[in-house]
């Protein structure tokens, strides 16, 4: 069976002086219509033989300094294709401008100064690419004519920006592959179309793109790359969009920061305090001795202060990575003062460190393309850090009032009374929800 592309047309457009191909609907499409049908025989997948060869080479399956074995096998399948292969001919010749793994240290420092989480992610990926390439070279597993590191990195850039991981609705059939034509689709949330595996003619498995809603004639065909924030889309795909909200109002943006020797993920505000509580708690634990002796959370646990004390989750020991360049009222009368004082101190330190991190961001660089994407990402990150800085300050205010003898429930009820009376709340609703959650779990 050949490709069914009767419902679409491919246009070439120019964005920021770069030519790009996009897919449009050739006619009006009803919800449920199959927009594209690609036989699995037309996809590019890794071979069983390659996987067996990798396993025989004692490929490190659990070492984070190497790529996952399935990713490595798919990259090898791609770079093994001749330059005359139709799929190779439509791919970009390089990703030097688009994907940060190809940027120099100087460029990264210039464009992403202060974005410590994304710089850590890029460094980790660079390390994995170098270690994996060295292993393949040592065991003579690189295709003839494609032995150099640059070609291997190019193949991995194609994988992160274009590969599909597919599962059939019936279950049991999964496929990791490159899908010609379908990989020209851009991302959109909420999803316009969804893809999957369905049985085609003669029992062959097809990759199908199906409309989830009506699609107008001439409208661009899109699907969702996933619930991803800007850091992930920049590293994998080379773009950043303004924050996208999920149907429940939650935000997919996550800023990774190092605090007190621990990496903490801070999710953007939206959807209520349940989404942001973990980030604030993680920072207070990091600076307040959550894993050691004498910190606020140890005191809370000893004195019966609620869920905030916890059992003390074990943290996985992370391997050191090199920096690679590719090119209420507290119920115990004996411990209350110490707990509250510890909270005030830890929350103050969190606020101070977050302010330092905000000030550490660079000015960015004028221009479009990657310069614009990096400025957008850093603006998002700084606004998230500012939210948590202010939230830490608000919780600290409550802790100080508790220290002076006020009852936590009366403090929070006072907020509600002012709101019911038409007065302004202490803080905006998102922050208020986080502050209340934090205070009720750890102080009430």
Give the helix/strand layout.
Layout: E1 8-15, E2 18-25, E3 34-39, E4 44-45, H1 48-56, H2 69-79, H3 86-90, H4 105-111, H5 116-138, H6 149-162, E5 164-167, E6 174-178, E7 186-187, E8 193-199, E9 205-211, E10 222-223, H7 230-237, E11 254-259, E12 262-267, H8 273-288, H9 296-302, H10 336-359, H11 370-403, H12 408-420, H13 429-442
Parallel strand pairs: 7-10
Antiparallel strand pairs: 1-2, 3-9, 4-6, 5-6, 8-9, 11-12
The CATH class of the largest domain turns out to be: Alpha Beta
Q: What is the helix/strand order? A: EEEEHHHHHHEEEEEEHEEHHHHHH
Terminal Cα span: 66 Å
Q: How many separate domains?
A: 2
- Using DSSP, what is the number of strands? 12
Number of helices: 13
Taking all Cα atoms into account, the compactness measure Rg is: 26 Å
Plain-language structure description:
- The chain folds into two domains: 8-237, set domain protein methyltransferase, domain 1 (Alpha-Beta Complex), CATH 3.90.1410; 254-313 and 328-442, no CATH class.
- Helices cover 42% and strands 14% of the residues.
- It is built from 13 helices and twelve strands.
- The strands form five sheets. It has a three-stranded antiparallel sheet, with no helix packed on it. The chain has a three-stranded antiparallel sheet with strand order 4-6-5, with helices on one face. The chain has a two-stranded antiparallel sheet with strand order 1-2.
- A hairpin with a 6-residue loop joins strand 5 (164-167) and strand 6 (174-178).
- The radius of gyration is 26 Å and the shape is globular.
- This is SET domain-containing protein.
